[in-house]
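We modelled the chain as a single entity of 253 amino acids. Its sequence is:
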Amino acid sequence: MRLFLVALQFLTRLPVRLRHFEPAWLTDCVRHFPLVGALVGAVGAAVLAGAAQWWPAWVAAVLALMATVALTGGFHEDGLADTFDALGGAVSREKSLLIMKDSRIGSYGALALGLTLLLRAALLAELAARPLWGAVAALLASHALARAAAVGVMVSLPYGGDAEHAKAKPLALAVAPVNFVIALAWCALLLALLGAWGIAPLRLLLAVLAAALVALAMRRWLRQRLGGYTGDGLGATEQLAEIGVLLAFTAAI
């Protein structure tokens, strides 16, 4: 519970207060990132379902997207924009890391952020026009699997930035593989529940494959360009994996 609360505090804007804090908790709390993701997805699903009763699907989709962004403070969206600004051009590793630290947004970041938000809204609008349970399942799975993908990248790569100046310094240290195993266990439990409640196994398998492919692609990209992961790179991984899972849920199969 303590580690879950640390994860909730780190990934969301919810007013979680802890009387005591140990840096090691931040490293180990990543095991519960998928559980926090499922909570964020549940909030988005509730807004989507409620808004779809009153407004067109596109309006409901944008409201649901706004709810999840507000809940996380745009944490992962910020990482996506910074990553594409830093790695979109052919610059050195050192220059890329400097760009990531710059609070301003450039053309690559603006394009990536705008297009991914548009695609996420379009996918949610499609889900809003379908039976409600499918939309709920897609939001729960996309937010949970996407955060597991980020944990997988974190566990499989060293930190690629300047550890001394990292915003969350404990996460710049080695993350034990057991944390990824527990994160996958949370995802397996969620997928088992979704399967028991009627979501087609093939749909769930495609969702897992989509998240895994994004994680592998981001791992390769970050390793080649930076020699490891950064917080912004993990945010980009989450966003792209989320899109991959939503594409799997909306695909015509």
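As a brief sanity check on the tokenised model: The CA atoms of residues 31 and 58 lie 34 Å apart. Residues 201-226 form the longest helix (26 residues).
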